[in-house]
Amino acid sequence: MIDTFNLTLTDLDISGANLQIETPNYNLATGEMEATYDLFRDTRTGKIVNAKKAYLNHPKFTFEIRPNHFLNPSLIESRPDLTTIKRVNLSVPKYARGKNTEAVSVGEFKEVLTDLEKTLKDNGIKTNIQNAEVSRVDIFKMLKTDYEFMNYVEVLSLLDFKRLDKNRDYGTTLLSYNNQRQFAIYDKIEEEIIKAKREKNSNYNTRQKHDRMRFEYRLLKSKSVKSQIGFTTVKEYHKNYDQVERAFYEYTQATFGKEPENVTSLLIEDFRQGLIEYKERGLKNPIEQFILHHVSLPQIEQQIGTDQFFKIIKDVFNRKTAGDWKKKIKTAIKEATLSKMDFATKQSYVSLYREIKTKLLMRVV
Fold first, then answer.
1. By three-state DSSP, how is residue 28 classified?
2. For residues 96 and 112, what is the distance between their CA atoms, to the nearest angstrom?
């Protein structure tokens, strides 16, 4: 369930560490040297390392020491340990299995953290990983869907993510976010195809069905980790691992908690507002123009039902216009059905919503 796991180390002893030291550069615009900072004391030599930052890029994780620019100056003298940030970033599933496709067990999670502490020590960075503060957690769940990702995009875009006020649609990724948290839904197969092409992996099957959907609840800062999960140190994760899962399910329950029929009501209102807009523009044949630019006739039947569409036309225009369009739409749908098979799912948005909600909120005992 945990993917990205970023840790801020609160105690460490660095002795002859295998670290890359980044030295300052000249600012070509001003001719001045960039600032440097006292990053750490090497206990083997007794010398303080002064640089921009120090880091270790290990195949399974990254470690970095950099200045804490946000530290209150009044704390510098009393808490010198806070003048720098010592952070480890890793993906727990990738560390354990080489891929982040499936969640690891509680036992594997503990093995990852034990091995991480040993590997840091082997590289000259001694710390008690149990005391580390968790500064970011990405909690995820993979779904195998009945249809392809693009068949669900419309209904997923209607979701109202609690307290996440910004949204982006990248085509195969839906993202809602603020400064503290994110909720992402994306096509995992497409992500792997893009990665395979980037790595020129000719063995990857790029023609497989796009039926693996990933949901990620990302707690980006220690404050959001504390508020959503309830604790922040690694040792508390060992004791209360199930509480991490609870945070994911509570948030997704709040998001998917509405009845599927409410999704249909949102679609109905979208249709209504669309027709009102086209009518108020003074366009010739506003209903035809709305359908031409926004929806096909078979989609009307699939998404809200023709009877509901006729009711909207009657409310926005008049009874006669609704009657005329009732005949047009039914004839068009019949012809489309007879002439070709519907390439889409042949499922209503309500049923697609119900499928995702059921699979997402199903907890494995």
1. coil
2. 6
